[in-house]
């Protein structure tokens, strides 16, 4: 039985006659909206019904029906279940009005849908490719787009089994194990396309101040290879002296089309791939994905497993936040000392991951309806030693060493401010949203797993500056420890897997959206199944990617040195941003 | 032998001084010009050392080479002035320069060859080869106190003037 | 007449100083890495040789054999010249430092200083002010925006902090009644100047951190913002020269601090065993260097505009006030008896607290205005 994505009992069809119809396909829920009236509908949804948080925008290519569908998930920041609405477009000329005027947080997601699916959002201010490079041919998430090593639509490929008669696409490819560039291509003379458009998106280079003096602005490319971008992120910044005039992020250097790979894979194949999204938090990535598949198939999760999952999630959150604090201090110029102190704690937590999952970072631990291995009493012993003794002490130590530090305070306070309205507007999620004074935590607002059983508070801070984004991490570490302590006390004995574990999970046709409160924000998995063993559509709502939407408004007007810490304070991981 | 050594050093320094001065004038890039000027200051400081005036030599380097020229370079780089094309040559500039240079050379020749006793030695009581900075200080703050103070007031005025000129204009009379 | 033996003595002493700085640079990197590692719960380089003592050699060999790149559109002459211009002042600074009194060596009275000139402090100022050229020119000639910004920052920073540096030299000169470094050390026989000028010494130490671009003032090479700042485009030996200059400057500036405020070569039994002088200097320098490393391991970087504010609006007025306090104190001591010299530390500590209080208040106000 599929758990519907949208459980809201509003009758929107009656409220918007002729515009909205309920989605009555088997396994689907929500509403289908006419493309022309979308903006007005969304505005009314936001203003009259209170769905102020646009969680996800994505598209699905229904090739057999010759339709493209844009799927929107909206939520109330006051809590409660969400609402899903869709716009169906002809595959030939898919055009839909952009929702950026209503929900500015749709900006990057619409660009992504344009990039990967070729859905044109009319009225979008800056509809350029975002993950693929400019000049890329086609839209790779369309079902009729084939990659260079294309063999079949879905795995397992018949060439690989049975009896191990392997025949690899690489061997059949004339370029052998790599796709080479065309004969006439000369890398020395190649000029990157699209940079003009990118720089054009920035403000004017030259301005005139009130005295009539021409002021030259400098365009600085922070990245893609730059120590402070935590990977291969590129920020094109226009500077007036040391002040930031405008900023445009460029991403996709690590893009591997995770979603296309996911659609080729079987459901279980994807579990290890999710590890690689946010490579600091593979456990929570697993959880979100498992949740989405479990919603799709209706698999129940045993009691003990739920506890194990919660323990692993919270450990992940704690180590992520420790690392974030350490790295933020690194961005501030503290020479690795806080970062290495944080790493010490992280290593201890990774020891536990290694003990349960066999791997420290790429855990691949969750299964549909269970987890891969049981947690032995010895491991639990270790966890409780951490949760009850060491980690609380260390959180206090960080607090004592850092919170009052004059330089940290003076560099973080008031820097990169984001008001609560803006944070919601830009679909900011996770600790950064809560640091802006919005107490929105999915664990409380729309509880999944067994979070409704635990006694904990939603950490919230009200200034929305980098200092609060730092403080909220400490708060969250403490709250996570509370959850952890309760979970360790309450964990029951029992099975860890519902039914028999299988390699090939069959799902009923339908859609599902599994979202969790990942350490970096709302991590969502949108799945569409057509009833086979492979997902028809597999979309990741990556918090790192969407949280960056607000970056421009946070850094403009600040100093270039502030950019680094604002970016560091949002907490992004490029593996997840670029997917 | 000691005289010879000083003479050799004098000619080396003089060569450096003239060469860098010429280099400063002739070089196309503003940055190079500034660097030649720095070298020139160094050469002049060397002369001061030979004149037994280490205090002035050090002050020369600190103030001119260390502070003023760095600011020059700063401005040149900030404005990107090294890329600017040279301004148009004024038509009367060259002839005038030739005439003035001729007058200067004549003057120098007159002083050198016709007025043989030279300029004469300036009498500075209390100054000798081993004058300590303390002695300079005593003279500066004793005998020449008034000129010194006047100079400092002048500099202070200039500083205040500069600050007033670049002060950001207040909008609506509000603070900052 | 130039005495040949004297020339030989100068050459030998200069070589000793140069090799001392080179060796000091090499082992300072090792020292810093080991100390940092210990502070960061790591081990640090311990593979090359016993306790990693050959690590500097390994690094040097690596850097020598690395490819040296010159960007295509860089100004090649200046690009090559800049590292040299950075290293030379760092080395030259050390010549006026007295490492001890006189010793008898091969039957000659030898001064343990290369050139103990009577304008020693001015010489330090002059050379320190020229040292900025290498960095500025490196930044400019690289034809790289990050490098240029690094160069600009360092220029502005060094000019700003030179004022406070110069004035803290003045404090010492006032106390010692001389600009000659050996006389300054001798003036500390009864009492180190750090006791009489505690605030002055602190200001001096802060300013020197800024002058040598060390944390928390390592703006020009602020890694997180400017990649590597002015030496972004340098590689191989040219990079090594910048690296060397930075560490040599650290050593030299520590020696200067020791000379000016911590009694230089003075210590117990120095009168009977003049060779103890260099040992005392070494010990004090290592202590100061340890402090610098400790600061680097502890503090985040101050933002650039705040750094300028600190230099111009806090340190400069403070040190000007200290000059006034010191001059008055000396005058009082001359007029009314020597014990009044203790008014200098008392009043200057009060001034220091006042400054800290004012800074604290203005920061607090700023944060309150944000709420």
What does it look like?
The complex is a heterotrimer of chains A (579), B (176) and C (371). Chain A is 37% helix and 16% strand. Chain A has 579 residues and is an alpha+beta fold. Among the domains of chain A are: 12-122, NADH:ubiquinone oxidoreductase Nqo5 subunit (Beta Polymerase, domain 2, 2-Layer Sandwich); 279-499 and 564-572, Cytochrome-c3 Hydrogenase, chain B (Orthogonal Bundle), CATH 1.10.645. In chain A, strands 1-2-5-4-3 form a five-stranded mixed sheet. A three-stranded antiparallel sheet of chain A has the order 10-11-12. In chain A, a hairpin with a 2-residue loop joins strand 13 and strand 14 (370-371). The longest helix of chain A has 29 residues, at 303-331. The relative contact order of chain A is 0.14. The mean pLDDT of chain A is 83. Among the domains of chain B are: 1-84, NADH-ubiquinone/plastoquinone oxidoreductase chain 6, subunit NuoJ (Four Helix Bundle (Hemerythrin (Met), subunit A)), CATH 1.20.120.1200; 131-169. Helices cover 71% and strands 0% of the residues of chain B. Chain B is mainly alpha-helical. Chain C has one domain (4-370). Chain C is built from 14 helices and two strands; from the N terminus they run αααββααααααααααα. Chain C has a two-stranded antiparallel sheet with strand order 1-2. In chain C, strand 1 and strand 2 (108-111) form a beta hairpin. The longest helix of chain C is centred in the first third of the chain and has 36 residues, at 4-39. Chain C is globular, with a radius of gyration of 22 Å. Chain A binds chain C through residues 218, 220, 226-228, 242, 329-337, 340-341, 344, 405-411, 413-414, 463, 465, 559-564, and chain C through 36, 39-42, 145-146, 149, 215-216, 218, 222-225, 227, 296-306, 363, 366-367, 370-371.
């Amino acid at each position: 039985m599929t758990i519907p994505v949208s459980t809201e009992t509003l009758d929107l069809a009656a409220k918007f006659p002729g515009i909205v119809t309920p989605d009555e396909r088997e396994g689907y829920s929500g509403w289908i909206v006419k493309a022309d009236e979308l903006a007005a509908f969304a505005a009314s949804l936001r203003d009259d019904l209170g769905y102020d948080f646009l969680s996800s925008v994505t598209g699905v290519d229904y090739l057999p029906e010759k339709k493209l569908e844009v799927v929107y998930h909206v939520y109330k920041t006051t809590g409660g279940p969400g609402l899903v609405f869709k716009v169906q477009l002809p595959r030939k000329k898919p055009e839909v009005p952009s929702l950026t005027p209503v929900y500015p947080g749709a900006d990057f997601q619409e660009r992504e849908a344009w990039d990967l699916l070729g859905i044109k959002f009319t009225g979008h201010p800056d509809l350029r490719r975002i993950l693929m490079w400019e000049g890329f041919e086609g839209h790779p998430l369309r079902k009729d787009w084939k990659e260079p090593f294309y063999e079949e639509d879905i795995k397992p490929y018949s060439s690989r089994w049975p009896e191990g008669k392997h025949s690899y696409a690489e061997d059949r490819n004339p370029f052998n194990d790599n796709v080479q560039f065309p004969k006439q291509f000369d890398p020395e003379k190649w000029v990157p396309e699209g940079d003009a458009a990118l720089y054009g998106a920035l403000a004017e280079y030259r301005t005139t101040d009130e005295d009539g003096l021409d002021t030259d602005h400098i365009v600085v490319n922070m990245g893609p290879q730059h120590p402070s971008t935590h990977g291969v992120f590129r920020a094109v910044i226009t500077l007036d002296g040391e002040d930031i005039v405008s900023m445009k992020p460029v991403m996709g250097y690590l893009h591997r089309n995770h979603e296309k790979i996911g659609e080729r894979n079987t459901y279980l194949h994807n579990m290890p791939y999710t590890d690689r999204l946010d490579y600091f938090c593979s456990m929570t990535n697993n959880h979100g994905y498992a949740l989405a598949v479990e919603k799709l198939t209706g698999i129940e999760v045993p009691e003990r497993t739920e506890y194990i999952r919660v323990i692993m999630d919270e450990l992940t959150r704690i180590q992520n936040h420790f690392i974030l604090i350490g790295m933020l201090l690194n961005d501030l110029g503290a020479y690795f000392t806080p970062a290495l102190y944080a790493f010490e704690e992280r290593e201890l937590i990774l020891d536990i991951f290694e003990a349960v999952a066999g791997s420290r970072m790429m855990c691949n631990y969750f299964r549909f309806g269970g987890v891969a291995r049981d947690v032995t009493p010895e491991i639990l012993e270790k966890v409780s030693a951490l949760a009850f003794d060491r980690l609380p002490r260390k959180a206090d130590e960080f607090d004592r060493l850092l919170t009052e530090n004059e330089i940290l305070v003076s560099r973080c306070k008031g820097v990169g401010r984001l008001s609560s309205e803006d944070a919601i507007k830009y679909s900011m999620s996770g600790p950064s949203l809560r640091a802006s004074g919005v107490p929105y935590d999915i664990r409380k607002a729309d509880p999944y797993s067994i979070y409704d059983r635990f006694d904990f508070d939603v950490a919230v801070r009200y200034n929305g500056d980098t200092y609060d984004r730092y403080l909220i991490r400490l708060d969250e570490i403490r709250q996570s420890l509370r959850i952890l302590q309760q979970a360790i006390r309450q964990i029951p004995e029992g099975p860890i897997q519902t039914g028999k574990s299988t390699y090939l999970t069959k799902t009923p046709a339908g859609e599902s959206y599994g979202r969790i409160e990942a350490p970096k924000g709302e991590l969502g998995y949108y799945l569409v199944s057509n009833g086979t063993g492979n997902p028809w559509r597999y979309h990741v709502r990556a918090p790192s990617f969407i949280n960056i939407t607000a970056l421009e408004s946070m850094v403009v007007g600040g100093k270039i040195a502030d950019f680094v810490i604002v970016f560091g304070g949002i907490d992004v991981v490029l593996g997840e941003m670029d997917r | 032998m000691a005289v010879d050594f000083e003479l050799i050093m004098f000619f080396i320094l003089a060569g450096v001084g003239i060469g860098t001065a010429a280099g400063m004038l002739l070089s196309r890039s503003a940055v190079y010009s500034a660097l030649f000027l720095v070298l020139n200051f160094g050469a002049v400081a060397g002369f001061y050392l030979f004149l037994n005036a280490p205090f002035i030599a050090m002050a020369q380097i600190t103030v001119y080479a260390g502070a003023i020229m760095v600011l020059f370079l700063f401005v040149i780089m900030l404005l990107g002035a090294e890329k600017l094309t040279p301004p148009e040559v004024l038509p009367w500039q060259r002839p005038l320069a030739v005439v003035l240079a001729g007058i200067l050379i004549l003057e120098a020749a007159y002083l050198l060859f016709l007025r043989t006793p030279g300029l004469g030695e300036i009498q500075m009581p209390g100054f000798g080869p081993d004058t300590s900075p303390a002695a300079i200080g005593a003279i500066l703050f004793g005998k020449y106190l008034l000129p010194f103070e006047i100079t400092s007031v002048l500099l202070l005025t200039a500083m205040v003037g500069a600050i007033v000129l670049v002060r950001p204009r207040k909008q609506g009379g509000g603070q900052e | 007449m130039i005495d040949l033996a004297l020339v030989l003595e100068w050459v030998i002493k200069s070589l000793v100083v140069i090799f001392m700085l080179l060796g000091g640079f090499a082992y300072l990197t090792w020292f810093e890495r080991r100390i940092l590692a210990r502070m960061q719960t790591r081990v640090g380089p311990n593979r090359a040789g016993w306790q990693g003592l050959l690590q500097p050699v390994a690094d040097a060999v690596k850097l020598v054999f690395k490819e040296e790149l010159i960007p295509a559109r860089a100004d090649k002459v200046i690009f090559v010249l800049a590292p040299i211009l950075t290293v030379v002042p760092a080395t030259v600074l050390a010549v006026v430092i007295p490492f001890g009194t006189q010793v008898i060596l091969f039957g000659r009275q030898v001064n343990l200083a290369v050139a103990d000139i009577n304008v020693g402090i001015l010489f330090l100022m002059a050379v320190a002010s020229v040292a900025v050229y290498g960095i500025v020119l490196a930044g400019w000639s690289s034809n790289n925006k990050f490098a240029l910004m690094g160069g600009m920052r360092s220029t502005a920073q060094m000019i700003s902090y030179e004022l406070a540096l110069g004035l803290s030299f003045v404090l010492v000169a006032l106390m010692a009644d001389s600009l000659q470094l050996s006389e300054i050390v001798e003036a500390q026989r009864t009492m180190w100047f750090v006791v009489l000028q505690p605030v002055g010494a602190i200001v001096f130490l802060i300013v020197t951190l800024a002058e040598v671009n060390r944390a928390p003032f390592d703006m020009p090479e602020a890694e997180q913002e400017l990649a590597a700042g002015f030496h972004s485009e340098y590689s191989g030996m040219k990079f090594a020269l910048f690296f060397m200059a930075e560490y040599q400057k650290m050593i030299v500036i520590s020696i200067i601090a020791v000379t000016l405020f911590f009694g230089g070569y003075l210590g117990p039994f120095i009168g009977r065993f003049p060779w103890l002088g260099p040992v005392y200097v070494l010990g004090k320098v290592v202590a100061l260097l340890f402090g610098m490393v400790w600061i680097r391991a502890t503090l985040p970087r101050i933002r650039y505009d705040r750094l300028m504010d600190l230099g111009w609006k806090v340190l400069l007025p403070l040190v000007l006030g200290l000059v006034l306090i010191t001059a008055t104190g000396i005058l009082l001591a001359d007029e009314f008896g020597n014990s009044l010299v203790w008014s200098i530390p008392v009043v200057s500590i009060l001034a220091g607290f006042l400054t800290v209080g004012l800074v604290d208040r203005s920061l607090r106000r700023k944060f309150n205005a944000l709420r």
